[in-house]
Amino acid sequence: MSQRPPSAVVLVLHGGRESGTGPPPPGPLNLPRLRMRPFVHALTRATRSTRPSGDGGPVLVRQVRYGHRGWNGDRADPLHDAVAALDALREEAEAASGAGSAPPVVLLGHSMGARAALGAAGHPLVRGVVGLAPWCPPGDPVTQLAGRDVVLVHSDQDRMTSPRATQTFTARARRAGARTCMITVRGGDHAMIRRAPDWHRLTTELVTGLLGSGSLPGPVGAALALPPTADPADGTLDLDRLRAATSEAASTAR
User: CA 23, CA 95: separation in Å to the nearest integer?
Assistant: First the structure.
């Protein structure tokens, strides 16, 4: 934690495996963690010169460390790691500035990390979740997402996790009181290697927009404002069409 209390925090949760009780491999052998490094760098650059409205403190970008490599069924190991990281942030903030001073948090997760982020979103510090290629099993709870902003980004070519399950999850979460949106990346992949610059740019826009240090693309804001009974397709955006609409709006404004 920096000497100056952060105005907001981004907690980054990388992917993993369905099962694996051993610790994640160290350093460069931990490929899921390395996969998130470009996102961490992009967010750090984007937030260095900007601050959420109303506060002059820095934005802290921090990666969550896992004790185990996999989700491991009912153990849900990375979910507990995410909650522990949020509790630690709250304790640090209260030690530095007193009770009630903890900063708002946006959780950014990929695959298994997105599942952990969604599960931990009921923590009082969490303002929103950005999930990349999320793992969204049908039985996972959604009530903890009430009052949160949730944007899930998925490739239509993903063969590891299901984009259809993600769309169903966003609809379920909206009915439970969350503000949700899904964005489809045509021609992408689960590892976010294909169209990597698009993944990085979009994620930075979404996270900074949810923090209030940037602006969400207009169609995303409109999707988040949909009523709980909205059709799942209405809350699903196509990245390429989103870019075209954003460019057209910018040209009209000029």
Answer: 30
